[in-house]
Amino acid sequence: QVQVVESGGGLVQPGGSLRLSCTASKGITRFNAIGWYRQALGKQREFVAGFTGAGHINYAESVKGRFTISGDNAKKTVYLQMNNLKPEDTAVYYCSVPGYPWGQGTQVTVSS
Predict the structure, then answer these.
(1) What pLDDT was estimated at residue 69?
(2) Dihedral angle, C-alpha 90, 18, 50, 26, nearest 10 °
(3) Whole-angstrom Cα distance, residue 103 to residue 59?
(4) 92, 39 contact by CB (below 8 A)
């Protein structure tokens, strides 16, 4: 079954941190064009962070300086480290992997 699995979400207080993980059923062997997106309730899905085709990294302005995307070749996993979380970061987070359909996502809730 071809699928992407996101994990690591949860409930955290403002200012807290979470690390999301993304794996794929056939294994992630290249990080090019892999990205994280999020969708808040009632809003459209938006880009958060991702690797470009050339291997560079882009971030949405709203998360620059707080979120970091990275990849682990040995573990075939892509991570999203999220620090200094804010209530407006609350959303379902999805990992986009070329050739795979969207996964179920992982819920991140930032609330006191």
Answers:
(1) 97
(2) -110
(3) 21
(4) yes
- Nearest to 30, CA basis, from 66, 77, 67: 77
pLDDT tens digits for 3-38? 999 999 999 999 999 999 999 988 888 899 999 999
Q: How far apart are CA 97 and CA 60, in angstroms?
A: 18
For every residue of 14-63, DSSP letters joined together read TT--EEEEEEETT-----TT-EEEEE-TTS--EEEEEE-TTS-EEE-TTT
Spatial separation of the C-alpha atoms in residues 87 and 25, rounded to whole Å: 32
How many Å apart are CA 46 and CA 59, to the nearest integer? 11
DSSP 57-111: EEE-TTTTTTEEEEEETTTTEEEEEE-S--GGG-EEEEEE-TTS-----EEEEE-
Q: Which of 2, 55, 45 is nearest to 25 (CA)?
A: 2
Displacement of CA 57 from its chain's centroid (Å): 13
